[in-house]
Fold this protein.
Amino acid sequence: MSELRATSERMTRGKVQTMKLTPILASIATLAIVITGASPGLAAPDPLDLHTPAAELRVSLGRLLAEHTFLVMEQMRASGNPAPDLKDTAITVEANTKDLQAMIAQVYGAPAGQTFGDLWRAHIGYIVDYSIANQKGDEASKQRALAALAKYRDDLSAFLAAANPNISAAAEAETLERHIEHLISYSTKDYAKAYDLQRQAYAHMFTVGDELAAALIKQFPTTFTGDKVAFSPASSLRVGLGRSFGEHAVLTMEAMRSRLTSSADGSVVATALDGNRADLASWVAQIYGAPAGTAFDALWKTHVRAYLDYVDAVATKDAGAKQKAVDALLAGQHELAKFLSGANPNLTEAALESVLAEHLRNLTGQVDAYASADYPKTYTIVRSAYSHMFMLGDALATAIAQQFPKEFPTGLPNTATERAGGPVSAAGAMLISFGLALVAAGAAMLARRAPFGRRL
């Protein structure tokens, strides 16, 4: 702790390295601009400026933290057997850790980034140790891992609180405790419970990302400009769609692995995919009305079913069934593009087909790579597929916010910035404003249901 405290003290004395925009955030911003640009992208030029430095920080933190949770759970799963892809799950977890460490280093300097990285890696190791001990029934090793995790929780919460005066060490410790509980509970042999916990843990990390982003934005307002945009209803729509589409990518990977290896969790993964599909359909229903939500649900169900058929065909080496699944995926891609472009004038069918085609290449590519035991390629595609779905969510959210600027404004409503007890946090304001926006959107869409029904 002495080195940690020394680093933290240096930071609190003002020796902080700031930035205009980190390379990671800049790359995301560039991709977002391309995907929403006039020529190759989905939507018309974006007059909303949703991609402020503060907004990119919020999106990137949530995306990377949620990916961490999924990848660590995959590493825990692989360590139990051990599975042939164990080494590659660990390598992929490390790649995610390096991305998170780079974000800390860009804000607070390389020494602080290294301290964070060391702490972060330690907790991953303790989680895997706990999982292995739990599967072996080694109670002594489990208790050692739990004690180490408790120390990690206190050390990381102290580090973050010392680095940023807007972070409460006690509150952060509570947040980290919930993250740890999710991960250690995932080692249960009850698959239904495990996937329910995974979905909770995945969603929880976006809340963690929001809290950290709010604290960083408040500490460095001239670096992370555009705070009102970052926590506006429009940006919350962007985060929400990215979260749901990203989870789809996560679950399709797990379904692929499960079906190719004839794992006992196969039916439970399919149930989790159904839950994610319902979430996506709910987004459509909230924005365009219940009939549109039902229509999207049917299209997405066909998409998922065709993908699972492709996995099964690869597993059984049935070339005919594989081609049939490919044909179904391509047909579904066309129908989804037609549906979405019909709902929103800022989206073109051709551009949507192009973006969805990339999604299909990722889905089928990871299956083919895993089936041929090319695990490095598999996990490279997995990370690419996950990030790509956030770009899809970004483009759709931008187009929807352009279509319904009153329902999804890019600034925080006045009612969300203050309350009787005083000012609320940026994350709290985001939740209030997004709730108000959904109420407004729901009322507005009821009036527009007939026209959208005809267009869809």
Observations:
- The longest helix spans residues 426-455.
- The chain has a mean pLDDT of 83.
- Residues 81 and 132 are 9 Å apart (CA to CA).
